[in-house]
């Protein structure tokens, strides 16, 4: 039982890792908590649904479509909203991101309705190993996330783009002096995180039904993971996501499953009480 | 038609109360509260549970006190951190309230909710008056809270809060207790949200968790942004005009019959989102800009720049 929950928790954690990473990257470069991550997941899931069910593509192609949609949506929201409000401080951006979230979620609701949808994939018998059930969806999710994380890690640490992103996150003025334009880097970051969120949305749609609120339901665990990792730290976000995933699933041993979300919230509260910088943390205390 | 109008006025009153509260927390003190719906729900359920035993006045006060206490606890946890943390903790709080309301059915009736909440002055209402008394109750409540908020804005407390919002470091350097001020502002706002919840419960006489969705929060933000952050008069105007606009979309259904109910509600929500964004970009000061007081208001002869 416990081993099964640990496995489920690790997969859930991997699933959370992508959006948590996206949240933290945007926070690093633009210094605001983007409350639209959840709705971007939803959008990605519906884009995947269009590719997979409406157009009849294989799931991988649908995921690519979702990633492209996510990237486009993020670029658009940056160009139409966030870029115009950049000078107004993080609170305004925060509230604006809530507005963006409402718009995206309800475009999905308007188009597809409230009914729960799912992808068109052949049901497969779960693999049994040492008394543990492993679903095909879990294998697909774990493999996809690990590959994406490795690619992103290489991109962030070893490429000129990654260096530029870290430079802007660290000190935009100094980066500008060295000829790194914040705007360009911000746009690339938006496209990257949008693609990651879109892809993650498809994985989330594999895990549970696709409905307009699915992203919203991931919101608190995503933020818990990013805060646990210290907002702004990519490695921290992934580690935080794994911990949150395991904590949520393992909580089934002592709590009714309805209270899973409470775990993430409790983690946030405890962290804010005792370790305000997250586990890997950047500075958070204000004046 | 008459009862429809009364209903709208009461809904505007509830939204106005919530907006006034958020205007204190966010507009005046700069504290983002994304958990508005949670506080309103808490107030409503407190009233629903206590009103049959304690009477309406004590129940209303209990609801306000409980919400104030919870706001204080949440703000104490997060207020020394960046804005982002308060925002996420309040969102989490609203979700937890929703989950608790749904699952602790021994207390809250779960998804079925609580029915037969006694209204204030119910025995005084002449037959055929319908919602008349509750309408008066709502208007008096809004007037009281509006008076209280205007008093706060003009008081030294309000001035200090604006100073803290605009530059906490300067305020702290001048010896102002920044943390205590923020906590107090957040608690007062929470209490008013509790009052709004109480009014909601009294009017509906039946509450269930589905009435307290994040839409209340979005709507309150829209009202504060539209009315002008920090301006209470603007806020009431904002809350009223948005409600009218949204109510007007009801009639879209008659014009465009192909739209179903889900699509209509989705459209309204998307409109709120678009409204928030457009107002933030195009008219950040809102309908009625926050009154800026200068040295000249106090010392008409002063010559220096304020």
Report strand order across the widest sheet of chain A.
1-2
Class from helix and strand fractions of chain B: mainly alpha
Record field, number of beta strands of chain B: 0
* Oligomeric form: heterodimer
Helical percentage of chain A: over 70%
Low-pLDDT segments of chain A: 282-287
- Structural class of the helix and strand makeup of chain A? mainly alpha
Radius of gyration of chain B: 20 Å
Which sequence of SSEs, written as H and E, runs from N to C of chain A?
HHHHEEHHHHHHH
Percentage of residues in DSSP E strands of chain A: under 5%
Q: Report the principal-axis shape of chain A.
A: globular
Q: Calculate Rg of chain A over CA atoms.
A: 18 Å
The profile of the biggest β sheet of chain A is: 2 strands, antiparallel
Proportion in β-strands of chain B: under 5%
> Fraction of residues of chain B in helices?
over 70%
Low-confidence stretches of chain B: none
Number of beta-strand segments of chain A: 2
Number of helices of chain B: 14
Using CB atoms under 8 Å apart, which protein chain pair has the greatest interface? A-B, 51 and 47 residues
What is the strand and helix layout of this fold?
The complex is a heterodimer of chains A (287) and B (306).
Chain A: H1 2-30, H2 37-54, H3 59-85, H4 90-112, E1 127-129, E2 132-134, H5 136-158, H6 160-170, H7 172-177, H8 182-207, H9 214-228, H10 234-250, H11 260-274
Chain B: H1 2-28, H2 36-54, H3 56-78, H4 83-103, H5 105-108, H6 132-154, H7 156-166, H8 168-173, H9 178-204, H10 215-227, H11 232-249, H12 252-255, H13 261-282, H14 295-298
Helix pairs in contact in B: 1-6, 1-9, 1-10, 1-11, 2-3, 2-4, 2-9, 3-9, 6-7, 6-9, 7-9, 10-11, 10-13
Membrane topology (chain B): Multi-pass membrane protein
Transmembrane segments (chain B): 6-24, 31-48, 54-77, 84-102, 133-153, 185-203, 209-226, 233-252, 264-282
GO cellular component, one term (chain B): plasma membrane
